[in-house]
Amino acid sequence: MSNxxxxxxxxxxxxxxxxxxxxxxxxxxxxxxxxxxxxDSLSFDLKKLLFDGPESDLLLTENAQxxxxxxxxxxxxxxxTELNLKLDVHLGHSLxxxxxxxxxxxxxxxxxxxxxxxxxxxxxxxxxxxxxxxSAIIGAEDAQVIDWCKEATMLATEARKNGGHHFxxxxxxxxxxxxxxxxxxxxxxxxxxxxxxxIITDKKIRGIMAKRIQVSAPFHCSLMKAARTKMExxxxxxxxxxxxxxxxxxxxxxxxxxxxxxxxxxxxxxxxQVDHSVMWKQSVESLLPEYTLAFEFGPGKVLQGLSKRIAxxxxxxxxxVYPIYDLESLKLAEGVLK
Length: 338
Hints:
The structure is a single chain. Helices cover 49% and strands 14% of the residues. With 338 residues, the chain is of the alpha/beta class. It has 2 domains: 6-125 and 224-337, Malonyl-Coenzyme A Acyl Carrier Protein, domain 2 (3-Layer(aba) Sandwich), CATH 3.40.366.10; 132-216, Malonyl-CoA ACP transacylase, ACP-binding (Alpha-Beta Plaits, 2-Layer Sandwich), CATH 3.30.70. The strands form 2 sheets. Strands 2-1-7-8 form a 4-stranded parallel beta sheet, with helices on both faces. A 4-stranded antiparallel beta sheet has the order 4-5-3-6. It starts with 5 loop residues before the first strand and ends with a helix.
Protein backbone atom coordinates (compact mmCIF):
# COMPACT_ATOMS: atom_id res chain seq x y z
CA MET A 1 0.00 0.00 0.00
CA SER A 2 2.98 2.35 0.56
CA ASN A 3 3.55 2.70 -3.19
CA UNK A 4 -0.06 3.78 -3.82
CA UNK A 5 -0.53 7.55 -3.85
CA UNK A 6 -3.14 8.65 -1.31
CA UNK A 7 -4.96 11.95 -0.86
CA UNK A 8 -6.75 13.49 2.12
CA UNK A 9 -10.12 15.18 1.47
CA UNK A 10 -11.72 17.69 3.85
CA UNK A 11 -15.39 18.76 3.46
CA UNK A 12 -16.81 22.25 3.55
CA UNK A 13 -19.86 23.97 5.00
CA UNK A 14 -23.13 22.14 4.53
CA UNK A 15 -21.90 18.82 5.92
CA UNK A 16 -22.59 19.83 9.54
CA UNK A 17 -25.13 17.99 11.67
CA UNK A 18 -25.90 17.82 15.38
CA UNK A 19 -24.07 14.84 16.90
CA UNK A 20 -21.21 14.80 14.41
CA UNK A 21 -18.04 13.40 15.94
CA UNK A 22 -19.75 12.01 19.07
CA UNK A 23 -18.51 8.43 18.53
CA UNK A 24 -14.91 9.54 18.09
CA UNK A 25 -15.20 11.95 21.04
CA UNK A 26 -16.25 9.12 23.32
CA UNK A 27 -13.59 6.75 22.01
CA UNK A 28 -10.38 8.68 21.30
CA UNK A 29 -8.37 11.09 23.44
CA UNK A 30 -6.87 12.85 20.42
CA UNK A 31 -10.35 13.71 19.14
CA UNK A 32 -11.43 15.04 22.55
CA UNK A 33 -8.29 17.15 22.68
CA UNK A 34 -9.12 18.64 19.27
CA UNK A 35 -12.60 19.68 20.38
CA UNK A 36 -11.30 21.06 23.68
CA UNK A 37 -8.59 23.05 21.91
CA UNK A 38 -11.18 24.46 19.53
CA UNK A 39 -13.45 25.41 22.46
CA ASP A 40 -10.56 27.22 24.16
CA SER A 41 -9.80 29.11 20.94
CA LEU A 42 -13.44 30.13 20.48
CA SER A 43 -14.08 30.83 24.19
CA PHE A 44 -17.29 28.79 24.17
CA ASP A 45 -18.27 25.16 24.63
CA LEU A 46 -18.05 23.71 21.11
CA LYS A 47 -18.73 20.20 22.44
CA LYS A 48 -22.17 21.27 23.69
CA LEU A 49 -23.01 22.87 20.36
CA LEU A 50 -21.82 19.80 18.42
CA PHE A 51 -23.68 17.21 20.43
CA ASP A 52 -26.67 19.08 21.87
CA GLY A 53 -27.30 21.79 19.29
CA PRO A 54 -29.68 23.41 18.78
CA GLU A 55 -29.41 22.80 15.06
CA SER A 56 -30.37 26.41 14.34
CA ASP A 57 -27.22 27.58 16.15
CA LEU A 58 -24.98 24.98 14.49
CA LEU A 59 -26.25 26.05 11.06
CA LEU A 60 -25.12 29.64 11.61
CA THR A 61 -22.16 30.23 9.31
CA GLU A 62 -19.92 31.56 12.08
CA ASN A 63 -20.54 28.36 14.09
CA ALA A 64 -20.73 25.80 11.28
CA GLN A 65 -17.31 26.69 9.88
CA UNK A 66 -15.23 26.21 13.07
CA UNK A 67 -17.35 23.17 14.01
CA UNK A 68 -16.59 21.38 10.74
CA UNK A 69 -12.92 22.35 10.90
CA UNK A 70 -12.67 20.95 14.44
CA UNK A 71 -14.42 17.68 13.61
CA UNK A 72 -12.47 17.19 10.38
CA UNK A 73 -9.17 17.83 12.15
CA UNK A 74 -10.16 15.44 14.94
CA UNK A 75 -11.05 12.71 12.43
CA UNK A 76 -7.73 13.20 10.65
CA UNK A 77 -5.80 12.98 13.91
CA UNK A 78 -7.63 9.77 14.86
CA UNK A 79 -6.65 8.24 11.51
CA UNK A 80 -3.05 9.38 12.01
CA THR A 81 -2.74 7.83 15.47
CA GLU A 82 -4.88 4.70 15.01
CA LEU A 83 -3.93 3.77 11.44
CA ASN A 84 -0.53 5.45 11.16
CA LEU A 85 -1.97 6.99 8.02
CA LYS A 86 0.47 8.90 5.80
CA LEU A 87 -0.89 10.88 2.87
CA ASP A 88 0.78 12.37 -0.19
CA VAL A 89 -1.44 15.42 -0.68
CA HIS A 90 -4.28 17.24 1.11
CA LEU A 91 -7.18 19.19 -0.38
CA GLY A 92 -10.40 20.63 0.99
CA HIS A 93 -13.63 22.02 -0.44
CA SER A 94 -13.98 25.73 0.38
CA LEU A 95 -13.82 25.86 4.21
CA UNK A 96 -12.17 22.44 4.01
CA UNK A 97 -9.04 24.05 2.61
CA UNK A 98 -8.29 25.30 6.13
CA UNK A 99 -8.61 21.74 7.48
CA UNK A 100 -6.25 20.55 4.74
CA UNK A 101 -3.68 23.17 5.69
CA UNK A 102 -3.92 22.28 9.38
CA UNK A 103 -3.31 18.64 8.42
CA UNK A 104 -0.29 19.76 6.36
CA UNK A 105 0.96 21.65 9.46
CA UNK A 106 1.13 24.93 7.53
CA UNK A 107 -1.21 26.82 9.86
CA UNK A 108 -1.86 26.31 13.60
CA UNK A 109 -5.15 24.62 14.45
CA UNK A 110 -6.06 27.05 17.24
CA UNK A 111 -5.57 30.06 14.95
CA UNK A 112 -7.38 28.42 12.03
CA UNK A 113 -10.40 27.90 14.29
CA UNK A 114 -10.49 31.62 15.08
CA UNK A 115 -9.93 32.59 11.43
CA UNK A 116 -12.79 30.51 10.07
CA UNK A 117 -15.16 31.92 12.69
CA UNK A 118 -14.21 35.40 11.51
CA UNK A 119 -14.55 34.18 7.93
CA UNK A 120 -18.08 33.00 8.64
CA UNK A 121 -19.05 36.23 10.37
CA UNK A 122 -17.61 38.42 7.62
CA UNK A 123 -19.21 36.36 4.84
CA UNK A 124 -22.59 36.67 6.57
CA UNK A 125 -22.21 40.43 6.99
CA UNK A 126 -21.04 41.05 3.42
CA UNK A 127 -24.55 40.89 1.92
CA UNK A 128 -27.83 41.93 3.60
CA UNK A 129 -30.13 39.01 4.41
CA UNK A 130 -32.50 38.32 1.53
CA UNK A 131 -30.40 40.01 -1.16
CA UNK A 132 -28.12 37.11 -2.11
CA UNK A 133 -28.63 33.44 -2.88
CA UNK A 134 -27.15 30.37 -4.59
CA SER A 135 -28.44 27.76 -7.02
CA ALA A 136 -27.14 24.37 -8.16
CA ILE A 137 -27.17 23.94 -11.94
CA ILE A 138 -27.49 20.25 -12.76
CA GLY A 139 -26.70 18.62 -16.10
CA ALA A 140 -25.05 21.54 -17.89
CA GLU A 141 -21.50 21.97 -19.15
CA ASP A 142 -19.26 24.44 -17.33
CA ALA A 143 -19.08 26.71 -20.39
CA GLN A 144 -22.88 26.80 -20.67
CA VAL A 145 -23.24 27.90 -17.06
CA ILE A 146 -20.59 30.60 -17.49
CA ASP A 147 -22.40 31.98 -20.54
CA TRP A 148 -25.80 31.87 -18.83
CA CYS A 149 -24.38 33.73 -15.83
CA LYS A 150 -23.25 36.54 -18.12
CA GLU A 151 -26.62 36.64 -19.87
CA ALA A 152 -28.56 36.61 -16.60
CA THR A 153 -26.43 39.38 -15.13
CA MET A 154 -27.10 41.51 -18.19
CA LEU A 155 -30.87 40.84 -18.12
CA ALA A 156 -31.20 41.51 -14.38
CA THR A 157 -29.13 44.69 -14.66
CA GLU A 158 -31.41 45.94 -17.43
CA ALA A 159 -34.47 45.08 -15.33
CA ARG A 160 -33.10 47.15 -12.45
CA LYS A 161 -32.64 50.12 -14.76
CA ASN A 162 -36.26 49.78 -15.79
CA GLY A 163 -37.52 49.94 -12.24
CA GLY A 164 -37.19 46.35 -11.16
CA HIS A 165 -36.03 45.10 -7.78
CA HIS A 166 -34.32 47.57 -5.48
CA PHE A 167 -31.26 45.89 -3.98
CA UNK A 168 -28.30 47.45 -2.22
CA UNK A 169 -25.85 44.88 -3.64
CA UNK A 170 -24.46 44.72 -7.17
CA UNK A 171 -26.46 42.81 -9.76
CA UNK A 172 -24.37 39.72 -10.51
CA UNK A 173 -24.48 35.95 -10.77
CA UNK A 174 -21.26 33.96 -11.08
CA UNK A 175 -20.08 30.33 -10.86
CA UNK A 176 -19.24 29.65 -7.20
CA UNK A 177 -18.36 25.93 -7.15
CA UNK A 178 -17.28 23.69 -10.00
CA UNK A 179 -18.17 20.54 -8.07
CA UNK A 180 -18.34 17.75 -10.64
CA UNK A 181 -19.25 17.16 -14.28
CA UNK A 182 -22.79 18.42 -14.65
CA UNK A 183 -22.86 20.17 -11.27
CA UNK A 184 -21.98 23.84 -10.98
CA UNK A 185 -23.23 26.02 -8.12
CA UNK A 186 -23.84 29.68 -8.93
CA UNK A 187 -23.96 32.59 -6.52
CA UNK A 188 -25.09 36.20 -6.64
CA UNK A 189 -27.88 38.70 -6.10
CA UNK A 190 -31.39 37.25 -5.86
CA UNK A 191 -32.62 38.98 -9.02
CA UNK A 192 -29.67 37.79 -11.12
CA UNK A 193 -30.00 34.20 -9.86
CA UNK A 194 -33.74 34.40 -10.60
CA UNK A 195 -32.89 35.49 -14.13
CA UNK A 196 -30.46 32.60 -14.57
CA UNK A 197 -33.01 30.06 -13.38
CA UNK A 198 -35.58 31.54 -15.80
CA ILE A 199 -33.11 31.22 -18.69
CA ILE A 200 -32.67 27.54 -17.90
CA THR A 201 -36.43 26.98 -17.54
CA ASP A 202 -37.15 28.77 -20.82
CA LYS A 203 -34.55 26.78 -22.74
CA LYS A 204 -36.21 23.50 -21.74
CA ILE A 205 -33.05 21.49 -22.36
CA ARG A 206 -33.59 17.90 -21.36
CA GLY A 207 -31.57 16.89 -18.30
CA ILE A 208 -30.66 20.45 -17.27
CA MET A 209 -32.27 22.04 -14.23
CA ALA A 210 -31.63 24.60 -11.50
CA LYS A 211 -32.19 23.92 -7.82
CA ARG A 212 -32.19 26.81 -5.36
CA ILE A 213 -29.97 26.21 -2.33
CA GLN A 214 -31.06 27.38 1.10
CA VAL A 215 -28.06 29.39 2.27
CA SER A 216 -27.63 32.46 4.40
CA ALA A 217 -25.35 34.30 1.96
CA PRO A 218 -24.06 34.14 -1.66
CA PHE A 219 -20.66 32.55 -1.05
CA HIS A 220 -17.72 32.54 -3.48
CA CYS A 221 -18.77 35.41 -5.71
CA SER A 222 -17.71 39.04 -6.05
CA LEU A 223 -20.41 40.12 -3.57
CA MET A 224 -18.07 38.69 -0.90
CA LYS A 225 -15.44 41.39 -1.49
CA ALA A 226 -15.84 42.87 2.01
CA ALA A 227 -15.28 39.42 3.53
CA ARG A 228 -12.15 38.97 1.44
CA THR A 229 -10.82 42.32 2.68
CA LYS A 230 -11.42 41.18 6.27
CA MET A 231 -9.52 37.94 5.70
CA GLU A 232 -6.63 39.77 4.03
CA UNK A 233 -6.33 41.91 7.16
CA UNK A 234 -6.32 38.82 9.39
CA UNK A 235 -3.66 37.11 7.29
CA UNK A 236 -1.50 40.22 7.23
CA UNK A 237 -1.40 40.11 11.04
CA UNK A 238 -0.77 36.36 10.94
CA UNK A 239 2.27 36.87 8.71
CA UNK A 240 3.68 39.44 11.13
CA UNK A 241 3.18 36.93 13.94
CA UNK A 242 4.96 34.22 11.91
CA UNK A 243 1.92 31.91 11.99
CA UNK A 244 2.69 30.34 8.62
CA UNK A 245 4.94 27.27 8.47
CA UNK A 246 6.40 25.18 5.62
CA UNK A 247 3.99 22.57 4.28
CA UNK A 248 4.86 19.12 5.58
CA UNK A 249 2.53 17.60 2.98
CA UNK A 250 1.68 19.30 -0.36
CA UNK A 251 -1.83 20.64 -0.87
CA UNK A 252 -4.08 21.66 -3.74
CA UNK A 253 -5.54 25.19 -3.44
CA UNK A 254 -9.14 25.68 -4.53
CA UNK A 255 -8.09 28.52 -6.79
CA UNK A 256 -5.28 26.88 -8.77
CA UNK A 257 -6.29 23.18 -8.75
CA UNK A 258 -2.58 22.30 -8.84
CA UNK A 259 -0.45 20.50 -6.28
CA UNK A 260 1.92 22.89 -4.54
CA UNK A 261 4.30 23.03 -1.62
CA UNK A 262 4.77 26.81 -1.75
CA UNK A 263 3.70 28.14 1.63
CA UNK A 264 3.91 31.70 0.37
CA UNK A 265 0.81 31.13 -1.75
CA UNK A 266 -1.39 30.07 1.15
CA UNK A 267 -2.68 33.36 2.54
CA UNK A 268 -3.20 35.10 -0.83
CA UNK A 269 -5.11 32.10 -2.20
CA UNK A 270 -7.23 31.69 0.95
CA UNK A 271 -8.18 35.35 0.58
CA UNK A 272 -8.96 35.03 -3.14
CA GLN A 273 -11.05 31.92 -2.48
CA VAL A 274 -13.59 34.00 -0.51
CA ASP A 275 -14.91 35.90 -3.55
CA HIS A 276 -13.95 33.51 -6.37
CA SER A 277 -14.98 30.06 -7.56
CA VAL A 278 -13.99 26.83 -5.82
CA MET A 279 -12.43 24.59 -8.47
CA TRP A 280 -13.10 21.24 -6.83
CA LYS A 281 -13.70 19.27 -10.01
CA GLN A 282 -10.44 20.54 -11.50
CA SER A 283 -8.59 19.80 -8.24
CA VAL A 284 -9.63 16.16 -8.20
CA GLU A 285 -8.93 15.86 -11.93
CA SER A 286 -5.35 16.96 -11.25
CA LEU A 287 -4.90 13.84 -9.09
CA LEU A 288 -6.08 11.40 -11.76
CA PRO A 289 -5.13 8.84 -12.92
CA GLU A 290 -1.91 8.94 -10.83
CA TYR A 291 -3.76 8.84 -7.49
CA THR A 292 -6.06 5.90 -6.81
CA LEU A 293 -7.09 6.34 -3.17
CA ALA A 294 -8.39 9.12 -0.91
CA PHE A 295 -9.84 9.44 2.58
CA GLU A 296 -12.51 11.98 3.51
CA PHE A 297 -12.20 13.33 7.05
CA GLY A 298 -15.33 14.72 8.66
CA PRO A 299 -19.11 14.43 8.61
CA GLY A 300 -20.93 13.15 5.55
CA LYS A 301 -19.84 11.65 2.24
CA VAL A 302 -20.28 14.61 -0.09
CA LEU A 303 -16.75 14.57 -1.49
CA GLN A 304 -16.87 10.82 -2.00
CA GLY A 305 -19.95 11.24 -4.18
CA LEU A 306 -18.51 14.12 -6.19
CA SER A 307 -15.24 12.25 -6.74
CA LYS A 308 -17.01 9.23 -8.20
CA ARG A 309 -18.63 11.45 -10.80
CA ILE A 310 -15.35 13.19 -11.59
CA ALA A 311 -13.37 9.95 -11.95
CA UNK A 312 -15.89 8.54 -14.44
CA UNK A 313 -14.79 11.17 -16.95
CA UNK A 314 -11.06 10.42 -16.66
CA UNK A 315 -9.67 7.60 -18.86
CA UNK A 316 -7.93 4.82 -16.91
CA UNK A 317 -8.83 6.41 -13.57
CA UNK A 318 -9.39 3.97 -10.72
CA UNK A 319 -10.20 6.15 -7.75
CA UNK A 320 -11.80 5.21 -4.43
CA VAL A 321 -12.67 7.59 -1.60
CA TYR A 322 -13.29 6.26 1.94
CA PRO A 323 -14.87 8.57 4.54
CA ILE A 324 -13.49 8.36 8.09
CA TYR A 325 -15.98 9.62 10.68
CA ASP A 326 -16.98 6.70 12.95
CA LEU A 327 -15.73 3.32 14.19
CA GLU A 328 -17.17 1.38 11.26
CA SER A 329 -15.59 3.63 8.65
CA LEU A 330 -12.29 3.64 10.58
CA LYS A 331 -12.24 -0.16 10.53
CA LEU A 332 -13.02 -0.18 6.81
CA ALA A 333 -10.15 2.22 6.15
CA GLU A 334 -7.84 0.00 8.19
CA GLY A 335 -8.74 -2.94 5.95
CA VAL A 336 -8.12 -0.91 2.82
CA LEU A 337 -4.67 0.10 4.02
CA LYS A 338 -3.51 -3.44 4.76
